[in-house]
Amino acid sequence: MALTTANHGAFLLQLTTLIVPVLQGLRGAEKIPRQIKFAIGMALTGILLFTQDPTKASEIVGDPSLMQTGDALVLSAAFFYSLYDIQTFYWGREVPRTELVTIKIGFQAFLSTILCAVAARSETVDYFAAGPEWNVFIPTVLWSGLIVNALATFLQVGGMQGVGPTRAQTIFASQPLWASVMNYALLGSVMGAQGFIGGGAFLGALFLAATAEAPSPATAMDEKDA
Fold first, then answer.
1. Do the domain assignments include residue 165?
2. Is 205:43 a contact under the CB 8 Å cutoff?
3. C-alpha dihedral, 164 to 90 to 26 to 73, nearest 10°
4. Which domain, by its residues, includes 170?
């Protein structure tokens, strides 16, 4: 996110809405409707246009050429988020929600501590040696830990059991809209014409995915017929 704009990051991360049904189809877990397949192609075209929009890039990342690296990293994150969403759905049926969220948060906190102590040891020591602003540090830790990682995960696990991973991702499609509004209100960042065209195509693809017939579980007979 540090190498791209907030708008780019929000839209690219939302690619999970299309990656999840693709992965489900490849795994044979669901039959993907034709409308969703068309939405995937439309979204890829929109994303290509959106990521080439240079507006405000130099003001935010300093070097616009770095945006390609930032966009590539965010796209990679979207892929791994998609794997996470699918696994959350399946493990949510096997493990009680409270237990699953507790394991997830505990392991994440443990792994983060290890990474700070090993992979980012010097940066971590320098940060605390400089005396962090505790009035900013503590609220940030609490927000990230309790709201983003605990409450959001708790709600997500329960909700996905009712609608499934593919349908849940279509609900998440509103994220870029909220991010763009907040980005404009808080940071004053705007998009250029190319960004609006690409973003509009992407949101149109998400609308097609959201209004398509719900993917049905694939059966052995379906696979044989296919």
1. yes
2. yes
3. 90
4. 6-225
